[in-house]
Amino acid sequence: xxRVQEMFPLxxxxxxxxxxxxxxxxxxxxxxxxxxxLTYLKHPLYQIVLWILVFGVMSIPTSLRMGDSLxxxxxxxxxxxxxxxxxxxxxxxxxxxxRLVRIFVLGGAGYVAAAMAFARPGAGxxxxxxxxxxxxxxxxxxxxxxxxxxxxxxxxxxxxxIGVAGLTALMSATVLSGSRGGFLALVVVAGY
Length: 192
Description:
The chain is mainly alpha-helical. It contains 8 helices and no strands. It starts with 15 loop residues before the first helix and ends with a helix.
């Protein structure tokens, strides 16, 4: 999600996504209660993801560029389906969910802090790599509710600190992105 390898060209050869995906699959398969946790895939949200896959496959024969559509489904989208499935089946309890939220907020805040630190002087807008300002605005605004979750009543002091630091970095990046779409998304999230 955070595309850190685009900031540091030497890291492009490490293939973080492939390593993390392979480790996730390996850890899931070797864990306890795998068969029981596969029943979590009956969740309605995952069923919607699977229906999107079905409709995508059904659209291939009528596509103008069948080869590209087939490649998208079999490579990019298939990986997304697998990652979402493993994520759903891996969450055992509230503590697992809290850990995932913590990591997502830390990673997102770390990414935007590095993006702000390494931004080209005089560029005027924050973005770069494969995140244009609108992508960055959407990413930051989508992560803000997770920061608020970490700052909830009864959360640990560390979670609250992570939430406040993440919220500060993400709000700054939203403003610096200069994205009108990001601003509109922020208005909607604030209203919600």
